[in-house]
Amino acid sequence: MAGKISGLRFQKKKRDWVSVYVEGEYAFSLPAVKAVSLHVGQYLTDGEIEGFLRLQAEEKAYEQAVRFLGYRPRSKSEVERYLKKKKAAPETIGVVIRRLDDAGYLDDEAFARFWVDNRMQFSPRGRRALEYELRSKGVDEQVIRRVLDGHPQEDEESIAYGLAKAKSEAWKEIDYPAFARKLGGFLQRRGFDYQVVRKVIRRIWDERANSQSAE
């Protein structure tokens, strides 16, 4: 495929990218800032064209990753998985991850803090559930521990009680075993440990009993 560059054309859909033609045939595309050294009539060897094809793949993957990060913070592992789904080659993913690291786009500790803050604000979870979610995002165990240990929040029992109190209003006409089973399952799915779950169930049931006896 070696030959002279016969054309350099800005793409219609991506105006900041340039399509490069060699001997009248499309060869590859590059961001305009990466194509400034090219000119019509310039001879490219097979090796040079292969290099530009690798650069094209890297630039495409980098742009995809930056857009992916634009929706919300992501862990490094999430970005890697995303690029794999986009069919990026392993070596391309490695280059892109290093570039994102250098640019300050990837910070697993900052991501973990964002994730925990967001969860506790909009959909509270127990520590166990938060640990599981962060592990599934590929966050390192030490980072998870450091973020959760340093996160300012209510104690787990208070969080669980607040969630359970509202949920329990739907189960006013059932006996204690059914009540404990339903509320316990709800709290365990939210990641609260057995001791917390047991205390909260007993507390809410006792409050209900006291309220009914006072009527």
Structure description:
- The chain is of the alpha+beta class and 215 residues long.
- The protein folds into four domains: 1-44; 46-106, Arc Repressor Mutant, subunit A (Orthogonal Bundle), CATH 1.10.10; 108-149; 156-214, Arc Repressor Mutant, subunit A (Orthogonal Bundle), CATH 1.10.10.
- 61% of the residues lie in helices and 11% in strands.
- It has helices at residues 46-71, 76-85, 90-102, 108-122, 127-136, 141-149, 156-168, 176-189, 194-214; strands at 3-10, 17-22, 25-31, 43-44.
- The chain has a four-stranded antiparallel β-sheet with strand order 3-2-1-4, with helices on one face.
- A hairpin with a 6-residue loop joins strand 1 and strand 2 (17-22).
- Helix 5 packs antiparallel against helix 6.
- It is rod-shaped, with a radius of gyration of 28 Å.
- It starts with a strand and ends with a helix.
Number of DSSP strands? 4
User: Regarding CATH, which class of the largest domain?
Assistant: Mainly Alpha
**Looking at CATH, which topology of the largest domain would you report?**
Arc Repressor Mutant, subunit A
Radius of gyration: 28 Å
CATH superfamily of the largest domain: Winged helix-like DNA-binding domain superfamily/Winged helix DNA-binding domain
Question: Approximately what portion of the residues adopt beta-strand conformation?
Answer: 5-15%
First and last CA, distance: 89 Å
Biggest beta sheet attributes? 4 strands, antiparallel
Mean pLDDT: 91
CATH architecture of the largest domain: Orthogonal Bundle
